[in-house]
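Posting this for the archive.
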Amino acid sequence: TLSQRQLSSSWIQRHPERGISAWARNNFRPPSAAPGEKETVLFWHVHKSGGTTVKGIYRCMDQTIASRLPPSISHTEDKELIAFEPFGQRGGKFVNVDMTTRSGMLRAERMGLVASGKADMLFTMDVNFAGEHLYDKQHKGRIVSLFRHPVDRLASKFYYLQKADWEKTYSPKWADMSILEWAEKHNEESNVMVKKLAGLKFHDTATEAALRLAMRTIEKRFVVGLTDNMKESIRRFNIVMNIDLTSNRNQN
């Protein structure tokens, strides 16, 4: 983590490529850089912000996805990377990795996921870990994400996890409390996005230095869309991903 002095406004102005997380600075291209012939996009999936919808859209646009599949069809025990169609031709292509766990991402690192070029998009909630371990200076990528108003996002989380018994964080007891009670007594989130970008742990305290680091990293390396404006967000993602917008399949 950079010092308070290094994260001051004057220092940042003198060092425009500093003051951001090292993994993002070294391993990802800035939004202003022209799209390359082959760049693997890292999508930061912020919980309850539309990431599943984005994944579905790009599955329909013939993008090969690395995320997570049910264990019975995931092929994550295979000795080599493969891109396959677990749901048939209309279900999209996936790579046999698990981007939801650090052990799964370390396996992907050992197998050279990004260098292989087999995946067009990687979806993960652990953006700093994925960015540090799966990319490097020889295989730089792009980072895109959807952001949502934090109150709307947490309200969605509150109602969703009451019913989502397939989720590891399923919380049926929340159904017996008001959202106000939950927010005041049971919501453990506090500056989680800042902590993630700054490399802090869940229960660490997010300092002003961490906030500046997170903001600067987003400004210099992220292409950000808004959940409330999905159409425009996807249009912007398509541009930096160099996707052919004139294709009949991509217009449907």
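Residues 150-163 form the longest helix (14 residues). The mean pLDDT is 90.
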